[in-house]
């Protein structure tokens, strides 16, 4: 940073004229989030939540999972899930990004 008469006037690295205050950046993020909201959670609660992971390429079949977060990608929504799978009598936990069509909510009985 440079100072002129004790006032900060710029940033090193060529950021002169492109710097925006934190409040402005946060307001822009909020506007973007409102313009592109995440899907409503199917169970009425936010993530993390229990789900079923059904026939995803990495783990064919139906497996219990924990939905950790959503992300919007050009092809649609994907869920970040931790999935418990059993193979050869051993349990493994997979950390996957799965297309939303492979996720279903766990229904309470």
What class would the helix/strand composition place it in?
mainly beta
Spatial order of the strands forming the largest sheet: 6-5-4-3-7
Largest sheet: 5 strands, antiparallel
Order of helices and strands: EEHEEEEE
Please give the structural blueprint.
Layout lengths: L1 E3 L2 E4 L11 H14 L13 E8 L2 E15 L2 E12 L2 E10 L3 E3 L4
Antiparallel strand pairs: 1-2, 3-4, 3-7, 4-5, 5-6
Produce a short descriptive summary.
The chain is mainly β. Helix content is 13%, strand content 50%.
Give a verbal description of the structure.
This protein has 109 residues and is mainly beta. The chain is 13% helix and 50% strand. 12% of the residues are buried.
Feature tags:
109 residues, elongated, mainly beta, 1 helix, single chain, five-stranded antiparallel sheet, two-stranded antiparallel ribbon
């Amino acid at each position: 940073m440079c100072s002129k008469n004790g006032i900060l006037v710029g940033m090193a690295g060529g950021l002169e004229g492109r710097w925006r205050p934190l409040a402005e950046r946060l307001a822009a993020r909020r506007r973007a989030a409102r313009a592109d909201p995440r899907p409503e959670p199917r169970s009425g609660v936010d993530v993390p939540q229990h789900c079923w992971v059904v026939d995803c390429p990495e783990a064919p079949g139906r497996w219990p999972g924990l939905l950790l977060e959503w992300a919007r990608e050009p092809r649609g929504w994907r869920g970040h899930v931790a999935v418990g799978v059993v193979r050869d009598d051993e349990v493994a936990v997979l950390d996957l990004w799965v297309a939303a069509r492979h996720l279903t909510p766990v229904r309470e009985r």
